[in-house]
Amino acid sequence: MHLLWKNRADKLIERRQMDIKDQADDYGPGKPPLPGYDREAKVRRLAEREARRARRRREREHALILGQTHNEGMSSDDEEMQSEVIRFNDDKAKILSEVSTMFEDVVEDFSSFEGIKSRFELWKYDYSDTYMEAYIALCVPKLLTPFIRLQLIDWNPLQTGSKSLEQMEWYDSFLLYGYRKGQSVDSDDPDVKLLPTLVEKVVLSKLAVQVEDIWDPMSKSQTELLSKLLRTLILEYPTVNSESKNTQALLRAIVKRMRKCLDDDVFMPLYPRSLVENKQSNPYQFLQRQFWTCFKLLRNIFQFSGILGDALLQEMALGSLLNRYILLALQTANPSSETIDKCKAIVASFPKSWYVSLGSDQTLPRLEPFCRLLVHTGSAINQAASNNSKDKGEAKDSIKQVTKLLVGMHAMDHAVALSHKLSLKEVKNIGSDK
Question: How many CA atoms lie within 13 A of 177 on its CB side?
Fold first, then answer.
């Protein structure tokens, strides 16, 4: 089953990478023509890609709330052909059918989860002393793990609508393991730790493999589901902590997968500014789509704020994504109000906890390139408006917005660099509004 999910994820990622490569080749300067077969395959991919975009666009038109906007590149292209969906469901049903017959040749008393569990519970009820002396609480997880894994075989928490752990038979059965109805729970009983132990040893192990092989960090829905599940596990199960080897393995898998995504899936075209001046041109549209795709990944990385360390998040999100790719897109376009709107979205995505330990004068070192770009943007807008009195008011408002962003990031040194464009009173007002 895992291989089935993995193959599906690999195909979607490979298709996305081919689509980006095709567009980079088509809109780049001086590309040689492709041979006949490759050209036909490329035309077919183009037609399929545009058809999927058109369908997503129609769906958004029906779903978007009045006044909301959508930026191309923010949606996930995970649509499959109907024939592929049918084949996947058939293969999945076949696997589940085979799983249901796995214990047919086993003695009935030992062929089911409930059968084995009930025997241990009877032992505890009738001979509690020998039950405790035999350290059965240590044995039960190992004995019942194969049955739990069978129940988890089609569990994919990265898929919308997937069953939660609390809805599963094994979870409900273990919730009050070893206790009769109405019996009070003894906090010193080692069986109380049985369910958290199973979650840590079985669920986290499965989740780590799914993260490494199935999770797509570019997918907003998958990342939200994963981060929400992790926060729930950390909050509700004491065994899911920094000392747990399985927890550490899961977090390493998340970091490894995000690094792989940054290496393999992120691309920003490098165009001369003259090539993207026309907002209707394909190069401009491609550049915008890639910017918003990178921004989506930036927000997805920040979903793990409070789960992964700040230094690690800053290294990946700021060092490997913002400074390497996103700034490139912002620098390619002419400084404008559109640039400021993009910068607002970026700043709004930063975890506020980053600024708690900072002084009031300087921001994070990895945000310095972004702050310099903001100062350049504000200065360029002001300079462009210097010869046109009509635009001076708009330019002043733009500089206020840029200064407010800088103050919000504790980059007062950069904000001061723009202060000569405003009166001192206005800068103080901006600082007090942050």
Answer: 30
* Tokens 């950390």, located at residue: 234
Mean pLDDT across 189-205: 90
CA distance 416 to 346: 21
**Dihedral angle sign, alpha carbons of residues 47, 52, 56, 59:** positive
Query: Residue 59 is encoded by which pair of tokens?
Result: 């769906």
Number of helical (H) and strand (E) elements in the chain, helices listed first: 19, 0
**Residues contacting 404, CB < 8 A, separation 6+:** 430, 433, 434
| pLDDT single digits (tens) 66-113 | 456 778 888 888 888 889 999 999 999 999 988 888 877 777 777 777
158-191 pLDDT, tens per residue?
A: 999 899 999 988 888 888 787 777 777 777 788 8
User: Strand, helix or coil at 305?
Assistant: strand
Rounded Cα distance between 90 and 400, Å, is 59
Maximum CA extent, the chain: 93
Q: What distance in Å separates the CA atoms of residue 351 and residue 347, rounded to the nearest whole number?
A: 9
The model carries a pTM of 0.90
* φ and ψ at residue 28, rounded to 5 degrees: -85, 160
Structure tokens at 37: 């077969």
Task: Single out the residue of 177, 167, 94, 181 nearest to residue 143, CA to CA.
Answer: 177
How far the first Cα of the chain sits from its last, in Å, is 51
Token reading at 156 = 């994919």
Alpha-carbon distance values, 101 to 90, 107, 135, 155 (Å): 17, 13, 32, 19
Whether pLDDT at 424 is above 50 = no
